[in-house]
Amino acid sequence: MCSENMEINQKKDFKFNKFILFRRLKNDKIIKKIEKILQNFEKKTKNKIDLEKNYSKILNYIIELAEKKGFQGELIKKYIFYKFITDENIFTIKCDKYSGDIGSSLYDAAVLDIKKLKKIIKLFSYNYFLENKYSKYSFFYNYQPKKVDKFDEVLSKFINQIELDIDNEKEIVDNLIKYYIENGYGEYSLGTAFRWSQGKKRFYKIDKYDNIRFENIIGYDYQKNIIIENTRQFIKGKRASNILLMGARGTGKSSCVKASVNMFKENGLKIIEINKKQLLDLPIIMKKISNSSRRFIVFIDDLSFEENDYEYKEIKSVIEGGLQTLMENVVIYATSNRRHIMKEVWKDRDELDEEIHLNDTINEKLSLSDRFGIKIIFLSPTEEEYLNIVDGLANIHNIQINEKLHREALQWELSQNKKSGRTAKQFIDFVLRG
Fold this sequence. Notes:
By secondary structure, the chain is α/β, with parallel strands linked by helices. It has helices spanning 2-12, 29-42, 48-69, 75-85, 90-97, 104-123, 150-163, 169-183, 221-235, 253-264, 282-289, 312-324, 347-350, 358-370, 383-396, 403-416, 421-433; strands spanning 193-197, 202-205, 243-247, 269-274, 295-300, 330-336, 374-378.
């Protein structure tokens, strides 16, 4: 009876709106449903239909998250702390930006929030969701996903600390500060590569990012060295340029950008991939990452426009504005399959009645590419260079190099109607499949 009263009192203490710094948690849709369940448990006459309905929704969402992010164990605890540690607030931002030098007052506020979080997390130790009909959900308290992510270890370590029945709030805050210093804050503390959601105006981690390395990109040494040196200057905090990589499809432009991120990710370099239409959100993206101490490559793949693309002028204006006002922790790397980004057509030169506007038209098309400090051209390889790429990839995969391999590689190229690094890779993949 005594433990039952203790449980009820703790349920009444379950309010996320009592946080000082981490107040955004109270707006999370799943946490709202958890609160509804707890409020229902407080009532003398429990509405079992509402309980079942809300609990099923929580199960559905958190299980999907657990499988996606590789969480195991007690999923409600994992979810609450996952939202806690990835929250963006003045504490998490300052910890990252100033390497933990946040001042005593902000530190004390964080300690109070940890005290509150300990009460909330401890509540779930009573396993009241396992009572009566909810025993069928027991798997939820020892969940095993198909694959466990490394971040799950981080969550488990913090939860184990939080559940200790001792006054260790300052130790937990110290560990949180260390986490933010090492990883950054918010969602992009969870990884290296992200995509932008234009609808939700937020970043999403790319779980399986291309692990390409420069040594896997055969040839193009001049181009690779320029990208490596510029990126090295960037992560050192020195002056770096925005880069436009131009050339035919399949020549390794995008792979070089991804390889530069993989080369320097241990130095805190991150990448945000956006497409042409999402460029209109560039000011929002810049604002979101402006407080971070991390360094970001904003990557625009295939920055090119058709002659009748009505969005060109608007997007051009946004890019030019973004390039002019870039923070020191951001560079833009973009690829284009055309030399001047926007397709040129002869009618610009043939319509005599508009000859007076000719220079303006051509200059507008060239001006956007001129905003990039470094422009690198990737030419389609010659036959000799193409075979060198085939040989380099064959060496990586321990494939014997001989005349037969070269003959088949050239036949493959003819069937694809293109000499490129991508064509060579596709040929080697075909050979490996046997």
